[in-house]
Write a structure and sequence with these properties.
The complex is a heterotrimer of chains A (350), B (166) and C (135). Helices cover 68% and strands 2% of the residues of chain A. Chain A is built from 13 helices and 2 strands. In chain A, strands 1-2 form a two-stranded antiparallel sheet. In chain A, strand 1 and strand 2 form a beta hairpin. In chain A, helix 1 crosses helix 2. The mean pLDDT of chain A is 87. By secondary structure, chain B is an all-alpha fold. Chain B has 6 helices and no strands. The N and C termini of chain B lie far apart (62 Å). Chain C is mainly α. In chain C, helix 3 packs antiparallel against helix 4. The longest helix of chain C has 28 residues. Chain C is flat and about 70 Å long. The chains are: A mainly alpha (350), B mainly alpha (166), C mainly alpha (135). The interface between B and C is large, with 53 and 50 residues.
Chain lengths: 350, 166, 135
């Protein structure tokens, strides 16, 4: 019967979804602020400092501005696909947060609430599935604009994303061989109980994953689809108002989510370093579960800083260099890492 | 009706509707997008049958990789709605008859098959989970697995031969 | 169908049940509604003063010649088709990685052979220059 579903649990999940999506949107907004402030710091400037104290209200002003901008849909473009493009980009960015464990189980109003929206058996593969959809936002948007710059940028972006998706998938296999599960909650649990983060066992795998994450997010040094000096503004050249906002937002949300994935897979997720959470919880200190998500956010903050640090430090690759790195270097390296890990683990087990 | 049944019907309508739109859309880019939607509906069906790994592979490989290739081809060959050739009326009728015959054969085949007694295990079957699937693939079907790699090799050679003119 | 819901395990929290995907469906619906609302809001709030010049494609100030519906380099197509092939091969490694410990050396050698074929194809496409961007 219909009523046999646990409606209370679904309601709890809905509240969790609203909170997590809102938090990731707010974080994406403040990433733009952080990016400008970090750029200013590195270039010995002040950065945004007019809207509110320290310019803290700047992202709100920027976001609000986008709502009041005129919508422009070029005459020669395909109108439906032109609108669909940014919607798809935003959609994929909003779906990835579903399988991430943001923390353990906390008590709210006497209910024990798991801080993970959906703990599914194939966890990380779900993320890959959603990421593989990310290509369409760029391709559809760039093609529908009917602008040569946009089309070139869209083709470049799509080729780049699919190329680095391969190396990303391969680099993860070595990690999954050690964990034996695709569920992100299990991967975090293993790191919590052993007290050793996966990055210790998989330094090469992490490095490959990090490079691929940069490429998947179209961040410098892999921001070829947005190369201003040759393509003007990239695949979102013809966009204005919130449609442009969606593309930019999606990029910043993707950056946030990929930081979370890296922290979860390789840096213990919501594990508090040098603290044995299980022992503390056994003594009745349940508040420790509230610290976990904060620790995760701190780790994520470090990765986001890394993204921005790299942006203002390393120049952009040429396109053939980018393709060579993805196909001819990262893929063989990831395969080697996988075979070595397999042989080593099996050999040590004897 | 249980939730599973409602979802089944919603997904079926979605899958069939989008499949029809693939065929009838004028613009080939729309056809590709409807095909992606159709794959999502089929993945939903896989999830209802608890074939979770298959569902996500269907999305990654079909919706995420092969459809990208299709889009590339459409953009590469510059297929536009305005230049799409109008098909012959007789060709359409022949197509309809051929499709109808296939449907007839399938219905006849399924009518006599004993699938009616073997109901699909919805929601809780464990066969489709990645652990069991991997065990079966690498224990019982290890030879077909190796042969598939030869197939990939030949496909690669074919792609390079076609795509790279010396 | 009723028996499914009468068992002790809750299908939404049980990872080996299809019910664990229900929250994802909710998130999907939420995302669609959110995006539709945002698009509607910006359409409603923004000014609408269209002129013919404004709606022209941008080509760095010069008049645009033709449109962007032109055939393009086959290299992109080749990358896409190779991506499809390698992606399927990579997917094969996932069920192996999950069962890696149970399968032991036997499974490892099977995968090693698969990797051998993978590399054979890989070196073939590199030798043929299928991934060279500069001719």
């Amino acid at each position: 019967m219909l009523l046999a579903i646990d409606w209370l649990l679904l309601l709890e999940k809905l509240v969790l979804i609203v909170i997590i999506v809102s938090v990731s949107l707010v974080i994406a907004m403040y990433e733009t602020y952080a990016e400008r402030k970090i750029a200013a710091f590195m270039q010995d400037r002040r950065g945004p400092n007019r809207a509110g104290p320290f310019g803290l209200l700047q992202p709100l002003a920027d976001g609000g501005k986008l709502f009041f901008k005129e919508e422009i849909i070029p005459n020669t473009s395909n109108k439906f696909l032109f609108i669909l493009g940014p919607c798809l980009a935003m959609m994929t960015a909003m779906m990835t947060s579903a399988v991430i464990p943001w923390g353990g189980t906390v008590a709210v109003f006497g209910r024990s609430v798991s801080l993970q929206i959906a703990d599914i058996n194939i966890g990380i593969l779900f993320v890959f599935g959603v990421v593989s959809m990310g290509v369409y936002g760029i391709m559809i948007g760039g093609w529908a604009s009917n602008n040569k710059f946009s089309l070139l940028a869209a083709l470049r972006g799509a080729s780049q994303m699919i190329s680095y998706e391969l190396a990303m998938g391969l680099s993860l296999i070595a990690l999954l061989m050690m964990t034996g599960s695709l569920r992100l909650s299990v991967i975090v649990d293993q790191q919590m109980t052993s007290g050793v983060w996966n990055v210790v066992y998989q330094p090469l795998g992490f490095l490959i994953f990090l490079v691929c994450a940069f490429a998947e997010c179209n961040r410098t040094p892999f921001d070829l689809p947005e190369a201003e000096n040759e393509l003007n503004f990239g695949y979102h050249q013809e966009y204005s108002s919130m449609k442009l906002g969606f593309y930019l937002f999606a990029e910043y949300i993707n950056m946030f989510i990929s930081s979370v994935i890296m922290a979860t897979l390789y840096f213990g997720g919501y594990d508090i370093p040098f603290v044995n959470e299980a022992a503390l919880i056994a003594k009745g200190n349940n508040w420790i579960q509230w610290i976990g998500p904060l620790v995760l956010i701190i780790k994520v903050g470090f990765f986001i800083f890394l993204f921005m640090w790299v942006r203002w430090t390393i120049p952009r690759f040429r396109y053939d260099q980018l393709m060579n790195l993805g196909w001819k270097k990262l893929i063989p390296l990831a395969l080697l890492n996988m075979v070595l890990t397999g042989a080593l683990v099996l050999w040590l087990k004897k | 009706m249980g939730v599973t049944q409602i979802l089944f019907w919603v997904l079926t309508v979605l899958a069939l509707g989008s499949a029809l739109m693939v065929v009838t859309s004028r613009n080939p880019v729309y056809s590709v997008l409807y095909l992606i939607l159709c794959f999502f509906a089929i993945s939903g069906h896989y999830i209802l049958m608890n074939a979770q790994f298959l569902a996500v592979v269907n999305i990654i490989v079909y919706a995420g990789a092969i459809m990208v290739l299709f889009l590339f081809v459409i953009m590469l060959m510059n297929l536009n709605a305005s230049v799409e050739p109008q098909k012959n009326k007789w060709l359409k009728i022949a197509g309809a008859i051929a499709g109808g015959c296939l449907l007839l054969v399938l219905v006849a085949a399924f009518k006599d098959a004993d699938i009616k007694t073997q109901l699909v295990q919805t929601k809780d079957g464990e066969i489709g989970l990645i652990n069991n699937l991997g065990m079966a693939l690498f224990k019982d079907y290890v030879v077909p697995f190796e042969i598939s790699s030869v197939l990939f090799l030949s496909a690669m050679v074919g792609a390079v031969v076609i795509g790279k003119k010396e | 169908m009723n028996w499914i819901f009468l068992q002790v395990k809750n299908p939404i929290t049980d990872v080996s049940s299809a019910g664990s995907y229900l929250p994802i469906a909710i998130q999907l619906i939420f995302a669609v509604l959110f995006i539709a609302a945002m698009m509607g809001l910006t359409h409603w709030l923004g000014p609408k003063r269209n002129t013919a010049d404004k709606l022209e494609n941008f080509a760095s100030g010069i008049e645009s010649h033709g449109d962007a519906r032109q055939p393009m380099a086959i290299k992109y197509f080749l990358v896409a088709i190779l991506f499809v092939l390698f992606d399927v091969e990579v997917i094969f490694f996932y069920p192996y990685a999950v069962n890696f410990r149970q399968l032991g050396w036997e499974g490892f050698f099977a995968v090693l052979m698969f990797v051998g074929f993978f590399l054979a194809g890989f070196f073939y496409i590199i030798k043929k220059g299928a991934l060279n961007w500069e001719d």
